[in-house]
Amino acid sequence: MSARAFAFASASRAQPTRALARRRDARRRASNADGASSWTVVVDRASSRFGSDLLVERVSSDCPNAAFAGALVLTRADAPDAVLSERRDDGRESRSGRAVGRGGVFDAFATLPATLEGEARRGKKTIGILGLGAGTCAEIMAGHHDDVDMIGWELDPAIVELARRHFAVGDLEREGRLRVVTGDAFEGCARSEIEFDGLIVDCFDENSVVVACLKDKATWEALAARLKPGGRVVANVSTGRGKGAKLDDAIACAQALADATSDEVTIWRAGACSIWNELILSGPEVNWRRVADEYGDFASLTKDWFYFKKPADAASGAPWLAKTLGVDNDSA
After folding, report:
1. Are strands 79-88 and 125-130 parallel, antiparallel or unpaired?
2. Which residue range forms the structural domain that includes residue 222?
3. Is Cytoplasm one of the keywords UniProt gives this record (predicted)?
């Protein structure tokens, strides 16, 4: 196994326990009946048709979990550890560009336009967001790329309603930077007549587990067909969210993306405050030095990316990526 593969596989065995424990402690303190000071205050809620109440919460600035201290967050009442979206300082920090550098997955998504090649790299860009949530990714993207407009799909209309009331979605719509579509993101994108410069996939089920279709090569083929030459897909396949999350699911998603595109994939394994996420990026190896030079705000986010290419002797359908990583599916 190469040093690069070893580094990724070793990092992937880290457990996101500390931050999640802090969130659970915060929830317990917030629900105390004795009037003790809480770290979260519910400012709005909505019932989801998918069976879980959605909560918009303000996290106290003195919360020991630095990842969310002072933020407005969207969570599910029955899964408070999984933060669906966040916004800080009423959006001023994100829109001004200072959000990049915190190291979170939403910041990393914002590097996508800087990685594009060929036709997709030139001129004004259209980025599709599958799994818009409350628009955190879209807000940070708009704050750093004046030449990007977005289309965002969100399955849950209750999330869209809260996003327009409390997060940046309404502002972005009024500015013409974002068009919101309520419905199935994969079906909607595949049927779209738009040629996208890039696609961001951030889709999880009601238990905050990566949706199963991302392990299906056909899913990625349908999305890749909507890209301009030189375009890329980046997806969140985090194994650190929800019950039963496994590393082998992330690896299966990554290989499916590679097999559906150019037989290569780049994987990001990094985290802020012990909250680990994996991103997978399609296409040829990225010149990260160029990205850091041209987009100084993203310099800190150009690390921890690992590039893999399918071996020439790999049999069709064989789990070549897991083998390259030295990860046993039974123990991942």
Report:
1. unpaired
2. 3-13+97-325
3. no
